[in-house]
C-alpha cells in the first residue's frame, strides 16, 4: 500500500528519528502504527561494555559517546537511575528511558514532477563543476566543490539537484550556520517552484508534509535517520562542523547507506582535498563568477587599539575608515574577536553615525539588522565572526579589528574577505585588517588569496 497523503504519520516520520512523547500525533495513532509494524522504537541512550568492563554510553539521536557529556539522575518517569545526553539537550532531553521512533512502513513516494526555474547562465568553470557533480551522483560518489567565495556555488547545485528530484530522490542541503540556511532557502524555493522546500533550524517547527528538498542546519540532522538519497554540506569547514565530530556523524546518519555526501566550500581542509583527488571527485573554481579577482587584504597597524578603546578613544585610522564609508554611502561590516570589545566600541563609532549597530550570535534582532544593512537603513554593522560567511550585501566594505587574534584563522579571514565585491557592478572593495602585529594566519590567508587569483588567471 502506498499512501502519499499529506500530514499522515507516515509522511511526517519517514526518514525521521523522533522522540515518542513529542510527535504532533496522538498516543493512540502512534500506538496503532507500532502495532501495525510501521513504526519501530529505539532506546534513547544505550550502554555498552567497553574495554576492562568500562560502561560506554551512546545517544542514539546524536551518536555522542563522550562520557563527560552525560548526566545521571533519579528519573521520575521510569523510577530508576537514568542517564541523559547533554550533547543534543537543546533539542529536548533524550535519556535511557526515552523511546525514539522511526518509520519502517512503506516509504513516502516523492514527486517526480519538478522544474528548474533558474534563469541565469553558468560560467564555463561553474558548468564544468555542475556536470562533474551530476556524474558523481550517477556513480554514487561523494564530490568536493572547492570554489572561491563569490564563485557562485549555489547555482552550481541547481541542475544536479533538479536531476535528482526528477528521479523522486530526497535531498538535503545542510550548512552549519542558520544565516546560511536563511539566505539559501528563498533561492532554492525560487529555483524549484514546484518542489516542496523546507528550511529547518533551531526554533522552527517542522511541517507535517514530507518535504523532498530540505535545507537544514547540521544540528537538525540529529533528527533524521537514513532519510536522504544525497546530502550536500555547504560551508563544510565552518565551525561548529569541523570542531564537533558528532555533527559529522549526524550527517552520515541522516544519509541513506551509501548515499553520496558532497562538500561545497571555499576553504577545504588539506585532507579533504587529498581524498577528493584520490576519488577523482574534485571540482575547483578559482575564479569568481563575475571574472574579477578576490580582494587582497590590506594590513593597517593599529597599535594598542584595545587600550585606546578602553580609554574611550576610537583609534584615528579606524575612525577615518568608518567616516569614509559613511560619507560615501558604502555599507560596511567591522569584525571583532569578542563581544565585550565590540560593545565598548559601538558608542564610540555611533558618534560618527548613531544608526550604526552591532550584532552577535545570541542577538534576537540579528536577521532584521542584516536586512537593515542590505536596505541601507543602517550604514554599517559591527559583528562577531557569525557574519563571516554566507551573506551577500552589494557594495559591502569589510574590515577586521584585531586581525591578529587567534579566532581569525586563515579560513575565517578568507571567508571574511569573500564578502567583498560579490556583485558584477561592484566587484572591488576594501578588505582591511586592522592589527596589533601580523600573524601567520594573516600571511597564509593573503598568500592563498594571491595564489587563487593566480590560478584564476590574474597576475
Ligand atoms: Zn544526544
Ligand atoms: Zn528514565
Notes on the structure:
The chain is of the alpha/beta class. It folds into 3 domains: 9-103, no CATH class; 124-285, 3-Layer(aba) Sandwich (Rossmann fold), CATH 3.40.50.300; 298-455, Rossmann fold (3-Layer(aba) Sandwich). Helix content is 31%, strand content 19%. It contains 13 helices and 20 strands. Strands 10-11-9-12-13-8-14 form a 7-stranded parallel β-sheet, with helices on both faces. Helix 6 (245-254) links the parallel strand 12 and strand 13. The termini are far apart. The model is unreliable at 1-5 (pLDDT under 50). The site of one zinc ion has 8 residues, from loops. One zinc ion (ZN) binds next to loops.
Question: What would you say about this model in short?
Answer:
With 459 residues, the chain is an alpha/beta fold. It has 13 helices and 20 strands. Helix content is 31%, strand content 19%.
Question: What key phrases describe this protein's structure?
Answer:
disordered N terminus, alpha/beta, Rossmann fold, single chain, six-stranded parallel β-sheet, 19% strand, 459 residues, seven-stranded parallel β-sheet, 3 domains, binds zinc ion
For the CA atoms, what is the radius of gyration?
A: 24 Å
Q: What is the number of domains?
A: 3
Beta strands, count: 20
Structural shape: globular
Q: In CATH, what is the homologous superfamily of the largest domain?
A: P-loop containing nucleotide triphosphate hydrolases
Q: How helix-rich are the residues, as a percent range?
A: 25-40%
How much strand?
A: 15-25%
Give the mean pLDDT.
Answer: 91
Attached small molecules: zinc ion
Task: Report the CATH C-level class of the largest domain.
Answer: Alpha Beta
Low-confidence stretches: 1-5
Structural class, by secondary structure, is alpha/beta
Walk across the major sheet and give the strand order. Answer: 10-11-9-12-13-8-14
What is the annotated CATH architecture of the largest domain? 3-Layer(aba) Sandwich
Annotated CATH topology of the largest domain = Rossmann fold
Q: What can be said about the biggest beta sheet?
A: 7 strands, parallel
Continuous helix count:
13
How many angstroms separate the termini? 63 Å
Amino acid at each position: 500500500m502506498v499512501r502519499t497523503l499529506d500530514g499522515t504519520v507516515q509522511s511526517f516520520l519517514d526518514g525521521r528519528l523522533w522522540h515518542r512523547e513529542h510527535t504532533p500525533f496522538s498516543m493512540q495513532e502512534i500506538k496503532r502504527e507500532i502495532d501495525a509494524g510501521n513504526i519501530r522504537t529505539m532506546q534513547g541512550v544505550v550502554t555498552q561494555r567497553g574495554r576492562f568492563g568500562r560502561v560506554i554510553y551512546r545517544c542514539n539521536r546524536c551518536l555522542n559517546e563522550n562520557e563527560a557529556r552525560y548526566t545521571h539522575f533519579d528519573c521520575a518517569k521510569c523510577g530508576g537511575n537514568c542517564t541523559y545526553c547533554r550533547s543534543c539537550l537543546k533539542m529536548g532531553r533524550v535519556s535511557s528511558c526515552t523511546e525514539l521512533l522511526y518509520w519502517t512502513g512503506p516509504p513516502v513516494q516523492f514527486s517526480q514532477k519538478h522544474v528548474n526555474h533558474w534563469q541565469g547562465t553558468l560560467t564555463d568553470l561553474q558548468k564544468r563543476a555542475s556536470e562533474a557533480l551530476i556524474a558523481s551522483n550517477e556513480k554514487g560518489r561523494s564530490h568536493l566543490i572547492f570554489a572561491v567565495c563569490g564563485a557562485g556555488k549555489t547555482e552550481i547545485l541547481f541542475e544536479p539537484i533538479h536531476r535528482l528530484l526528477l528521479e523522486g530522490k530526497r535531498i538535503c542541503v545542510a550548512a552549519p550556520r542558520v544565516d546560511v540556511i536563511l539566505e539559501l532557502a528563498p533561492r532554492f524555493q525560487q529555483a524549484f517552484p514546484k518542489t516542496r522546500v523546507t528550511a529547518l533550524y533551531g526554533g522552527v517547527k517542522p511541517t507535517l508534509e514530507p518535504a523532498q528538498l530540505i535545507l537544514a542546519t547540521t544540528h537538525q540532522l540529529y533528527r533524521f535517520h537514513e532519510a536522504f538519497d544525497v546530502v550536500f554540506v555547504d560551508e563544510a569547514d565552518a565551525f561548529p562542523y569541523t570542531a564537533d565530530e558528532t555533527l559529522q556523524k549526524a550527517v552520515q546518519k541522516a544519509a541513506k547507506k551509501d548515499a553520496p555526501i558532497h562538500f561545497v566550500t571555499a576553504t577545504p581542509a588539506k585532507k579533504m582535498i587529498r581524498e577528493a583527488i584520490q576519488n577523482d571527485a574534485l571540482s575547483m573554481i578559482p575564479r569568481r563568477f563575475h571574472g574579477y579577482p578576490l580582494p587582497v587584504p590590506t594590513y593597517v597597524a593599529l597599535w594598542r587599539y584595545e587600550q585606546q578603546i578602553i580609554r574611550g578613544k576610537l583609534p584615528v585610522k579606524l575612525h577615518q575608515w568608518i567616516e569614509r564609508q559613511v560619507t560615501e554611502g558604502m555599507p560596511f561590516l567591522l569584525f571583532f574577536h569578542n563581544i565585550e570589545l565590540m560593545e565598548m566600541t559601538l558608542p564610540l563609532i555611533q558618534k560618527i553615525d548613531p544608526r550604526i549597530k552591532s550584532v552577535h550570535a545570541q542577538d534576537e534582532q540579528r536577521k532584521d539588522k542584516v536586512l537593515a544593512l542590505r536596505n541601507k537603513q543602517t550604514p554599517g554593522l559591527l559583528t562577531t565572526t557569525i557574519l563571516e560567511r554566507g551573506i551577500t550585501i552589494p557594495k559591502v566594505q569589510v574590515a577586521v579589528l584585531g586581525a591578529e587574534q587567534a579566532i581569525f584563522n586563515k579560513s575565517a579571514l578568507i571567508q571574511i574577505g569573500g564578502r567583498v565585491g560579490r556583485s558584477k557592478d561592484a566587484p572591488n572593495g576594501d578588505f582591511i585588517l586592522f592589527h596589533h602585529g601580523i600573524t601567520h594566519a594573516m600571511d597564509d590567508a593573503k598568500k592563498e588569496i594571491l595564489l587563487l587569483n593566480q590560478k584564476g588567471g590574474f597576475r
